[in-house]
Design brief:
By secondary structure, the protein is an all-alpha fold. Helices cover 82% and strands 0% of the residues. The protein has one domain: Orthogonal Bundle (Major Prion Protein). Helix 1 crosses helix 2, helix 1 crosses helix 4 and helix 3 packs across helix 4. The longest helix is centred in the first third of the chain and has 39 residues. It comes from Stakelama sediminis. This is DUF1476 domain-containing protein. It holds the Pfam family ATPaseInh_sub_z.
């Protein structure tokens, strides 16, 4: 019975670790996405930092990426930058790859 309990604990620990890594990748991706959008909107470095944090916070509104995409498209459009869902989704995918790479390099 001890072996079974040990395996169960190991699976639970692995699941928790995977969830933490996924959260970190998503948060980093959103920050990079905020910085990408800030460059397009010609924001100052201080405004860029605040905007990137706002994009990270926007992801907590609902499950999935739709809240982030909606925020970015709305903000880019309001700033006079031509942007659509497809462009933001492409950037989102690219930033996800970069975020994972950065996280792996930091370890």
């Amino acid at each position: 019975m001890t072996t079974f309990n040990d395996r169960e604990r190991a699976f639970e620990a692995k699941f928790a670790q995977d969830q933490e890594i996924a959260f970190r990748v998503t948060a980093r991706r959103n920050r990079l996405l905020g910085e990408w959008a800030a460059v397009k909107m010609n924001l100052t470095p201080e405004e860029t930092d605040a905007y990137a944090k706002a994009v990270v916070q926007a992801d907590f509104e609902e499950a999935g990426d739709e809240d982030v995409i909606r925020k970015l498209v709305g903000d880019l459009t309001a700033a006079g930058v031509e942007a659509d869902d497809a462009q933001v989704r492409k950037a989102l995918d690219e930033m996800a790859i970069e975020a994972r790479r950065q996280l792996l390099e930091s370890k």
